[in-house]
Specification:
single chain; 473 residues; mainly alpha; Rossmann fold; Glutamyl-tRNA Synthetase, domain 3; Arc Repressor Mutant, subunit A; 3-stranded parallel β-sheet; elongated; aa-tRNA-synth_I_CS; protein biosynthesis; ligase; aminoacyl-trna synthetase
Length: 473
């Protein structure tokens, strides 16, 4: 990189087509662009490539914006509509016509098809070579035409890619691509280059399915005398079976992962590791990702989506959260669907319980499930499995336990001592006492530890729940 390049402010972009949800692969592309720009004090801009009017919808555009917002990827300025810039794209095509780097082609679709059929029959290249390439303006008919790039016929086009290395394409293998259709609308190839140039994009970080486009786009940059951005074509995401990611592999949209309860920070961490690495580091914060991320850490091989790894990453991030962050994550998850708000008492109890909920939860729904004891209210009705632990003998033991709990100092040590008195007296292990306590405190057989539940609920609520169960016949 030259000194002049290094002084140029970094600008990256994410340019999705609004034909559906924010795909997991698109989210990772956006994340890589966001990390690269934000870490270098640059700009991350958003362009909606909505030129396919039949498939582009406002709802899909909003889904993309919502997905990026949920993922925590902010962009600079307003999102730009590619469709609304069609006049600018056409203006550049006409500039190229005036400069002689593009030309009008009057060949019909039938003529092009006939050329290709004949070339195929004769074993020649079917690459279309327009006969209108060098025809002077004075000899042009009054007929519909397309505008084609006057691409170099000799030599080669070299794409210096920060991920894939140098990719060389012989110019003889590239045709004079269409820039403007016969109805005057721009093609994707032209629109992308013009938009990237006008938006000041310095680094094009995108999927390697666009790598073949780069050589063609380089020729447009050259024809206009524009600086070429740094190319970085990243490997696609495959399923666990090594095949291109599709619906058969499960959830594809960011909103699906949000609905499954993965915290945004965990998904950012996981997506960053799909195709990029920093040594052996697997779990890291946003600050570390911003410090470490660079293009030379991106591999060439396709990454594989592994939901078990995502769950592990999610669990690690939940465990690292402060109690306030965990509460915010619960609120964010519950806001996705209309649910009844927590009462003030529920919020306070849940906040106290976070220390014993976070370490074992891998998703936010799991955390909420484990928090049921803190969110439910008396009377507690045990489920069928938990109820099996509540027989006459166990109820009698709970009655014996009550006075010891009434005088305990309500610390873990004191509770252990109270339980020890009862278990020793009956010659039973703690497990025989824990089952009934889980049933009366939470109504379930799988819960956080009995000690933690009692400490979270406090003496009065704990005794009230035990007394409710002890009083039943």
């Amino acid at each position: 990189m030259t000194s002049s390049q290094s002084e140029t402010p970094i600008v990256t972009r994410f340019a999705p087509s609004p034909t559906g949800f924010l795909h997991i692969g698109g989210a990772r592309t956006a994340l890589f662009n966001w990390l690269y720009a934000r870490a270098r004090g640059g700009k991350f801009v958003l362009r909606i490539e909505d030129t396919d009017r039949a498939r582009s919808t406002p709802e899909a555009t909003q889904a993309i914006l919502d997905g990026l917002t949920w993922l925590g990827l902010d962009w600079d300025g307003d999102a730009i509509s590619q469709f609304e810039r069609a006049d600018r794209h056409a203006e550049v095509a006409h500039t190229m016509l005036a400069q002689g780097t593009a030309y009008k082609c009057f060949a019909s679709q039938d003529e092009i098809a006939a050329f290709r059929d004949a070339a195929k029959a004769e074993g020649r290249s079917t690459l279309y070579l327009s006969p209108w390439r060098d025809v002077p303006e004075a000899e042009h008919p009054d007929a519909p035409y397309v505008v084609r790039l006057k691409a170099p016929r000799d030599g080669e086009t070299r794409v210096n890619d920060a991920v894939q290395g140098t990719v060389v394409v012989q110019n003889a293998q590239l045709d004079d691509m269409i820039l403007l259709r016969s109805d005057g609308t721009p093609t994707y190839m032209l629109a992308v280059v013009v938009d990237d140039h006008d938006m000041g994009v310095t680094h094009v970080i995108r999927g390697d399915d666009h790598l073949n486009n780069a050589s063609r786009q380089e020729q447009i940059y050259a024809a206009m005398g524009w600086s070429v951005p740094v190319w970085a074509h990243i490997p696609l995401i495959h399923g666990a079976d090594g095949k291109k990611l599709s619906k058969r592999h499960g959830a594809l949209g960011i909103e699906d992962y949000a609905a499954m309860g993965y915290p945004a920070a965990a998904l950012r961490n996981y997506l960053a590791r799909l195709g990029w690495s920093h040594g052996d580091d697997e779990i890291f914060t946003d600050a570390q990702a911003l410090e470490w991320f660079d293009l030379d850490g991106i591999g060439k091989a396709p990454a594989r989506l592994d939901l078990k790894k995502l769950e592990h990453t999610s669990g690690q991030h939940i465990a690292m959260m402060t109690d306030d962050e965990a509460m915010a994550a619960v609120d964010a998850y519950r806001s996705l669907e209309p649910v009844e708000e927590f009462s003030a008492t529920q919020r306070q109890t849940l906040q106290r319980a976070m220390y014993c909920l976070k370490p074992s939860a891998r998703t936010i729904p799991q955390l909420i499930e484990k928090a049921e004891f803190a969110l439910t209210s008396r009377p507690i009705t045990p489920d069928a499995k938990a109820a099996k632990a509540l027989d006459a003998v166990s109820r009698g033991i709970l009655i014996e336990l009550t006075p010891h709990l009434q005088t305990a100092s309500w610390s873990r040590d004191a509770l252990e001592e109270a339980f020890g008195i009862i278990t020793d007296a009956h010659g039973i292990g703690f497990g025989k006492l824990a089952g009934p306590l889980r049933a009366v405190l939470a109504g379930r057989s799988v819960t956080p530890s009995v000690y933690d539940m009692m400490l979270v609920l406090g003496r009065d609520e704990t005794l009230a729940r035990i007394n409710d169960a002890s009083a039943e016949t």
